[in-house]
Amino acid sequence: MDALLEVSPETLRRNVTSVLEQLAKNRFEDLPPARLIAVTKTVGPEVINALKPLHVLDIGENRAQVALPKLTKIAPEFRLHWIGRLQTNKVKGIIDHVCMLHTLDRDALAQEVQRRAAERGLTLPCLVQVNIAREPQKGGMPPEEVLPFLRRMRDFSAIRVQGLMSIMPADATPEELDGLFGGMRRLFERIREEAVDGVEMRELSMGMSHDYTIAARNGATMVRVGTALYQ
Hints:
With 231 residues, this protein is α/β, with parallel strands linked by helices. It has an eight-stranded parallel β-sheet with strand order 7-6-5-4-3-2-1-8. The radius of gyration is 17 Å and the shape is globular. The chain starts with 8 loop residues before the first helix and ends with a helix.
């Protein structure tokens, strides 16, 4: 496992303040600013706990072996979002700890989440991951498969789909990102208009450290920011 970053409280406070100010400046239409999900996979419990007085309680992790040992060492108010591709054999280990799964992207995963959540009497909020740029190396489904998938979700009583998520190409230009984020917002609104039974389009999770302002301007309700908070 890579060594976890050490970040001074002053650096963290400065960077969190800067990100929140940028989100306030880059609102979509008349919506509230996008919510900050602090990606904490590279930092330890001490840094995570330092987010609490800054009023950042939503954290994102993507590896069970890194995330789970931290949970006993951080304040109970933190809400853990699962933001990485999830193997079906890892569902059992995280199902009791996550407030939302951002990366629901295939039937096999939905079946395992349904099984494990139902065993525990849980209903897990989930976002469907969309591969809007059609990158073969990334998870997520192509846009045309999202609506049929959502219609199948009505049979999954332990899953509550609450929106969409996407990860953009790392090498995309600002103009390309603008188009891709805009495409995600249009897909989000189109699906919301369909009013699929059992599906809510409340959250649109998109944008990372290098592109979160573009995502926010295009209607992200959540941005997943790590590096920009710690450097």
